[in-house]
Design brief:
The structure holds 2 protein chains of 2 kinds.
Chain A lengths: L1 H11 L2 H6 L14 E2 L10 H14 L9 H21 L7 E4 L2 H16 L5 E5 L8 H10 L2 E5 L9 H7 L4 E7 L11 H10 L3 E5 L11 H4 L3 E5 L10 E5 L1 H6 L10 E4 L4 E3 L13 H17 L1 H20 L4 E4 L8 E6 L4 H9 L3 E2 L1 E3 L4 H7 L4 E5 L6 H18 L3
Parallel strand pairs in A: 1-13, 3-4, 3-5, 5-6, 6-7
Antiparallel strand pairs in A: 2-8, 7-8, 9-10, 11-12, 12-15, 14-15
Helix pairs in contact in A: 1-12, 3-11, 4-11, 5-6, 12-15, 13-15
Chain B lengths: L5 H6 L2 H8 L12 E7 L4 E9 L5 E9 L2 H14 L4 H16 L27 H15 L9
Antiparallel strand pairs in B: 1-2, 2-3
Classes of the chains: A alpha/beta, B alpha+beta.
C-alpha cells in the first residue's frame, strides 16, 4: 500500500517545485543545507504570501471600516475578502461566523471568557483530553476558577491509545463544554471528533475544536463537523504570524458578550452606555491585522491550489517513512499511533536527552523540536520531561527525513550511556 | 566517534560526555543541611541538589539527582566536584564567575581567571539556547545556599 501511494504521489507531487515557492528554504545554517522539520511549531511562507502582504502595504494600506476615501475602501475590501476566503476554506456557512483573532490561543481565550464566563455555573463540567496544548487547558482552568465549574480529562489508555468509548463516557449530563484538539501537536493523533460532537450535543454541551495542527493537514469543514467553535492560527498553515481565526456558530456568537472593548466593535458609544456592533465586528476591537488577513487568505488559496488531500497524502508518506526508520533504531520509543496521524512524530530515545539530539541535528542544518511541546500533562502521562519531534509540511522531502534519521543514529552513538 | 562540526566538538568535549555518562556525586544525600530544586521550564528538566555544610561554613558533601540533558548533567556533576571542601563564600564567588563566563560574548578576550575543569563548559557560549542547561545546577546551588524557601535543616 505504501508502495502504491509512493508511485502515485511521485507522479503527481512535484516537491521540488513547491520548495522553490518558499524562499527561506534556500538558506544554509552553518553552511549546511536546511532541513526544516519543525512545521508543527510554525510553517514557512511561500513567496505569494509575502508578495500579497507587500502589495497591500505598497498599494492599498489604510485603516479599515473608517475612511470614505480610495485607500480605505481598498483596504476594507481586501480585508473582508480575506474573511470570505477563510469561510470557504473551512466550510463556514456565513462570513460573519469568521472572527479574526491573534491566533488559536486568543480564539480559545475568547470562547472561554465570553461563552464560558456567562454560561458556566458551579458543578458544570468542562471536558478536555490529557493531550491538550497548554493553550486549550489554561483558559478553561481560569474560567473554572471564576465560575466553580470543573475540568474533566479524557485520559489515554495505558498503552497510549485513544479510546473513543472512554471519551464518550467522560461526557455526561453535567458537561457544558467539550474543548478538544482536532489533531494532537505531540502524538499527531487525528481525534475522531464527529462522534464526540454528536455525544456533546446530545447532552446539550458545546464543542470547541483546537484546529491549530489540523488545518494544514486534514480536510476541515466546520458545517459538516457541526462543531460550535473552531480555532486555528494562520502561521501554522503557511500564513503570517499575528493572526488567527475563531469560527463560531452565529446563533452562539450573537448571544455572547464582547471579549474586548474598543473601536470597530461598537455601534454607538456614550459614557452611559455602548451599543455593540454586529457580527463579526463585535469581537474585533481595535484596528485588525489587515496585512496578515490578506496574507492568510493568500496562503489558504495557495494550499487549495495544490490540494489539501494531495498535500496530506505526501505528508502521510513522509511520516510513514519516518516511523519505519525510527522503529528500526534500538531504544527509540514512538509516542502515539502508527496510523491515523497527521504530519507529526514525537519520540524518545533511551539515555539520550531530546535537547542534545536537537543541538546535534541543528549543527547539520536540521531543525527539529525538543521539549514538552506545551503539553506537560501529556509528558507526565508518559513519565517524560521532554521528547523530540519531527513534523513535516508540503515542502518536506524524503531526503530530509533520511538526513535527520542518519544524524540521529550518529547522535545516539555519541551520547548513549552504555 | 564522529562529531561533525567544530562547535559541536567544543560543546560536547570528552570530559562532558564522560560526566554525562557517569555523573559524579549522583544520588540523594542524607543527612543534608541545605537542598533546593531547580527547574527549567523551557525543557522541563529538573534537578535536586543536596548539600551538607559544616557549622564553620564548609561544604562537606554535595550530591544531586534529576533528569536533564548531557550539558545540564555534566555541569551538575562538575559543579559538585568543584564545590567539595569550599566555603560557602567561595561557592558564591564561583557561581558568579561561572555565570559571567558562560553568559559572556565568546569573541571578547577575557577569562583572565581560569575556571579550571569547569572551562570545558564554556562551549555553550556558542549555543545561546543551551546556556540555561549549563547554569541550572548553579542557580539551584544559589537557591539552596540563600534559603529560597526550600532549604532544609535536618
Amino acid at each position: 500500500m505504501l508502495m502504491n501511494s509512493h508511485s502515485i504521489t511521485t507522479l503527481t507531487y512535484d516537491v521540488e517545485r513547491i520548495c522553490r515557492d518558499f524562499p527561506i528554504l534556500t538558506i544554509q545554517p552553518y553552511g549546511k543545507k536546511l532541513a526544516y522539520l519543525d512545521n508543527a511549531a510554525t510553517t514557512q511562507k511561500p513567496q505569494c504570501v509575502l508578495d500579497a502582504m507587500m502589495h497591500y502595504y505598497t498599494h492599498e494600506h489604510s485603516n479599515v471600516h473608517r475612511g470614505v476615501y480610495y485607500l480605505s475602501e481598498r483596504a476594507s475590501s481586501a480585508y473582508e475578502r480575506a474573511r470570505d476566503v477563510v469561510a470557504a476554506f473551512i466550510g463556514a456557512r456565513r462570513r460573519e461566523e469568521i472572527i479574526f483573532t491573534r491566533g488559536t490561543t486568543e480564539s480559545i481565550n475568547l470562547v472561554a471568557a465570553s461563552w464560558g464566563g456567562t454560561h458556566l455555573r458551579e458543578g458544570d463540567e468542562i471536558v478536555l483530553t490529557v493531550f491538550e496544548h497548554h493553550s486549550n487547558i489554561v483558559p478553561w482552568q481560569r474560567v473554572s476558577q471564576r465560575t466553580g465549574a470543573r475540568l474533566r480529562v479524557i485520559p489515554l489508555e495505558p498503552d497510549g491509545s485513544f479510546s473513543l468509548e472512554r471519551a464518550l463516557e467522560t461526557i455526561t449530563e453535567r458537561t457544558r463544554i467539550v474543548a478538544i484538539t482536532h489533531v494532537s501537536n505531540v502524538l499527531g493523533l487525528i481525534v475522531p471528533v464527529a462522534p464526540i460532537i454528536e455525544r456533546a450535543h446530545q447532552v446539550g454541551a458545546v464543542v470547541v475544536l483546537d484546529g491549530a495542527q489540523a488545518v494544514a493537514h486534514v480536510e476541515v469543514n466546520v458545517s459538516n463537523l457541526d462543531c460550535d467553535f473552531y480555532a486555528f492560527s494562520s502561521h501554522k498553515v503557511y500564513g503570517p504570524t499575528g493572526i488567527g481565526v475563531l469560527y463560531g456558530k452565529a446563533e452562539l456568537l450573537d448571544r455572547m458578550p464582547p471579549y474586548q472593548g474598543g473601536g470597530d466593535m461598537i455601534r454607538r458609544v456614550t459614557f452611559e452606555q455602548t451599543t455593540y456592533n454586529d457580527l463579526p465586528y463585535k469581537f474585533e476591537a481595535g484596528t485588525p491585522p489587515i496585512a496578515e488577513a490578506i496574507g492568510l487568505a493568500r496562503a489558504l488559496e495557495y494550499v487549495t491550489t495544490i490540494g489539501r488531500s494531495v498535500i496530506a497524502s505526501w505528508e502521510d508518506e513522509l511520516i510513514s517513512l519516518c516511523i519505519t526508520k525510527l522503529s528500526n533504531i534500538e531504544g527509540v520509543r514512538i509516542l502515539g499511533p502508527h496510523h491515523g496521524r497527521a504530519a507529526v512524530v514525537s519520540f524518545s530515545v533511551d539515555g539520550v536527552h531530546p535537547h542534545d539530539i536537537a543541538t546535534y541535528l541543528d549543527r547539520q542544518g536540521i531543525a527539529i523540536r525538543a521539549g514538552h511541546h506545551c503539553a506537560q500533562p501529556l509528558m507526565d502521562f508518559y513519565g517524560l520531561s521532554a521528547t523530540s519531534r519531527i513534523s513535516v509540511a508540503m515542502y518536506s522531502t524524503e531526503e530530509e527525513i533520511e538526513r535527520a534519521i542518519a544524524a540521529l543514529v550518529e547522535c545516539i552513538e555519541l551520547f548513549r550511556v552504555s | 566517534m564522529m562529531v561533525r562540526s567544530d562547535d559541536l566538538r567544543q560543546l560536547y568535549q570528552e570530559m562532558i560526555l564522560d560526566h554525562h555518562r557517569s555523573p559524579r556525586n549522583y544520588g540523594i544525600l542524607e543527612p543534608h543541611t541545605h537542598s533546593a530544586e531547580g527547574y527549567n521550564p523551557l525543557c522541563g528538566d529538573q534537578l535536586h541538589l543536596f548539600l551538607r555544610i559544616t557549622t564553620d561554613g564548609i561544604i562537606d558533601d554535595v550530591r544531586f539527582t534529576g533528569q536533564g540533558c548531557a550539558i545540564s548533567r555534566a555541569s551538575a556533576s562538575l559543579m559538585t566536584e568543584a564545590l567539595k571542601g569550599k566555603s560557602v563564600k567561595e561557592a558564591h564567588q564561583l557561581f558568579e564567575r561561572f555565570h559571567r563566563a558562560v553568559t559572556s560574548d565568546p569573541t571578547e578576550i577575557q577569562n583572565l581567571y581560569t575556571l579550571g575543569k569547569l572551562d570545558v563548559l564554556l562551549g555553550v557560549r556558542e549555543f545561546p539556547s543551551r546556556v540555561k542547561c549549563a547554569t541550572l545546577a548553579w542557580h539551584t546551588l544559589e537557591q539552596a545556599l540563600t534559603g529560597g524557601g526550600t532549604t532544609t535543616t535536618e
